[in-house]
Amino acid sequence: MSADSSTSSQRAPGFIWILGAFAGFALLSLLVQSLLGQQRSDPREPDRLANLNEIKAAQAANVQKMSLEAGKSGERLAKALEVLKGQKPTTSTMLVPGSPTQLKQSAAPAAPAKAAEAPPAAAPAAPVSK
Fold first, then answer.
1. What confidence category does residue 89 fall into, taking pLDDT thresholds of 50, 70 and 90?
2. Alpha-carbon distance 98 to 107, whole Å?
3. CB 102, CB 108: distance < 8 Å
4. Which end of the chain has a smaller Cβ tally under 10 Å, C or N?
5. Where are the alpha helices (DSSP H) in 37-130?
6. pTM tops 0.90
7. Phi, psi torsion values for 53, nearest 5 degrees
8. Residue 101: which residues within 8 A CB-CB, separation 6 or more?
């Protein structure tokens, strides 16, 4: 039993030294970043800010055109929901690959192709001048 206790007490200082080394590297990294890692400016920043302002203005114009207001549009949206609920459901023309409808359509014989129209008469060739 004494052999087990001696090995565990010898491993503990090594583990503490490893933790200390990691903490030292973390502090060193933090110091280097604070001294050398200054913020670089983006050369496209003015263009991006102008684009952002343009987009925000367009969005504000769309919200104004739809007469939506923050916190006050619930009534209008409730009316729109009632209109949507009142509409009669229709069948979709979209086909999902592998669905029974698509398999049924692919198994059906293809519709006969329309007869190709005769090409228009060729125009007479223009005389070649020398």
1. confident
2. 12
3. no
4. C
5. 45-65, 74-86, 100-107
6. no
7. -65, -40
8. 95
